[in-house]
Amino acid sequence: MSTPDCLFCRIVAGEIPATVVRETATTLAFRDIDPKAPVHVLVIPKEHYADVATLGQGDPALAGEVLATAAAVAEDEGLLGDGFRLLFNTGAYGGQEVFHAHAHLLGGAPLGPMLARSVA
Ligand code: AMP
Ligand code: ZN
C-alpha cells in the first residue's frame, strides 16, 4: 500500500531519485540527503507505515526485515567492528519529520552521547 503524497513512498515508486544501497522485496535502504555522520543510511519498509510504533504493532515480521536490512547495510558499510547507532525518530517529541517509518543507520565516526543534552 502506497500513500501518494508521502516522500518515501515516492522514492519506493521511483518518482524521486535516491542513492539506494540495498533493496529487498519488502525494504529499501538509501543514503540520507543531509547526512549527520560519515555513514547515514535510511532503512524503510516499502509498505507505508507512519512510524515505527504502527509498523512494529501492525507487522512485526516486516519490522524485523527492516532490522535485517539495516544489519546487512551496517556490514556492507564496514560498521560492525567499531559500532553504529540505529534509531527511529517518532512523533513530535522524537523529532520525526517524514511520516513513513524509517531507521537511521549512523556510523563511521564516534557519535557522541545518545542525546545532545540530557532532558531528564
Ligand atoms: P526524521 O526527522 O527522522 O523524520 O528524518 C527524516 C530524514 O529524511 C532526514 O534525516 C532528512 O535529511 C531525510 N530526507 C529528507 N528528504 C530526503 C530525500 N529526498 N532523500 C533522502 N533523505 C531525505
Ligand atoms: Zn510512505
UniProtKB/TrEMBL annotation:
Database matches in PROSITE patterns: HIT_2
InterPro entries: Histidine_triad_HIT (IPR001310), HIT-like (IPR011146), HIT-like_sf (IPR036265)
A single GO molecular function term of this UniProt record: catalytic activity
Sequence ranges assigned to domain HIT in this UniProt record: 7-116
Motif Histidine triad motif per record, residues: 100-104
Residues forming the catalytic site: H102 (tele-amp-histidine intermediate)
CDD domains for the chain: PKCI_related (cd01276)
Matches recorded under Gene3D superfamilies: HIT-like
Protein name (Swiss-Prot/TrEMBL): Histidine triad nucleotide-binding protein
Source organism of the structure: Micromonospora radicis
Lineage: Bacteria, Bacillati, Actinomycetota, Actinomycetes, Micromonosporales
